[in-house]
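Work package 3, deliverable 3.1, input record:
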Amino acid sequence: MTAPQLLALIVAAMLLQLGAGVGWMLWRGRVGSVIGPAGPSVALPERGARTEAAWQGLRAFRVTKREYEDAARSQCSFHLQPVDGAALPAFRPGQFLTFTLDVAAPGPDGAMATRSVTRCYSLSDAPDPTHYRVTIKRVPAPPDHPEYLAGLASNQFHDRVQVGDVLQVKAPGGNFFIDPDPNVSVVLIAGGIGITPMMSMLRGCAAVQPQRPVHLYYGVRHGREQAFKLELEALAAAHPAFRLNVVYSCPDPTDLVGRELRHAGRIDVALLQRTLPPGRHPFYVCGPPGLMQSLVPALADWGVPVADIHFEAFGPATVRLPGAAAADGTAQVTDVDIRFTRSGRTLVWDGQDATLLDFAERHGVAVESGCRSGGCGSCETRVLAGSVAYASPPDHAPAAGHCLLCVGRPASPLVLEA
Ligand code: FES
């Protein structure tokens, strides 16, 4: 072999080795993003940092996968990739996506018509620049209130949205998200489908803060309704700092057999006192109204500082913490008339409710809602007279002459088009 031939052989061998190394790294990254227990490593955004590269308005996403997460097949995950192929912004684990869907719904005259509805669903995976995942529970529409839009969007997802379909989605939003400080031990408390933001927080921590102590309390009726069963068990097995407590209110005979950290009953302060290590723990609570209304004030009564209690309610739930109403600076008017022109009701605002949305729902006035935190605009309502106050400017700016019921309270008597 000549010297040039030998040199060419050496260069070819080096290039081959380099190519194999790059290929291995790419493959490893791909496997991590698809089947790894914790997803790819994307740093959690700093508290207060703006989510970069978030988009304005609606963006088209294609459904790339759907799968049921519980044995009862009532909770389904939808994986979404942007049609434009550009990288996705790193949301804050705990945030939600807002969808605009066309659904067939009964109008005021009972006739079916297509109408656009806006709904928010929590992200249920760690931040990943390639895809999002939301998990949606089927909600039966109340048969005695066909004019209500409850359940229409979730049923549309379960019954009609298939792999390949394109959906219109707003950028991640919401103010319920985990503190990114890796030194803070957190307690996540989920009831039912409230597990979805907790999955995002948990997977976000597992991806980039695997040593961070995370205590998850997940309340379900029985094992058939337990979502992410295998995924949670795999995370617990891979991360000793993660403590998984499952609490069954109506356990099946096999739910508790031979299992550690499985409990019968409901999540309450007594259970937390028995099972949590001492020390400061910020609490993140998400679930149905019953859980929120019992547990959130109980945490404050237990002595957890209000600043360490973070919560998000799915569905109507008035939750008040001691001192929260006085501290938020909202004008505290009471005994003023609120007139809803569409439903023909005039009601007295007595100050019992945290927001106009809670007030309307408590009195059976049908209004739309999505995020319940001022982020999606679905509760935007025309103000025909009077003024509405907010504790702080909402993320979604309502149009002139409109208000957001979910974060607003009356600053005077009101006439609302609802
Ligand atoms: S429900 Fe989303 S802004 Fe009011």
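The first strand starts at residue 59 and ends at 68.
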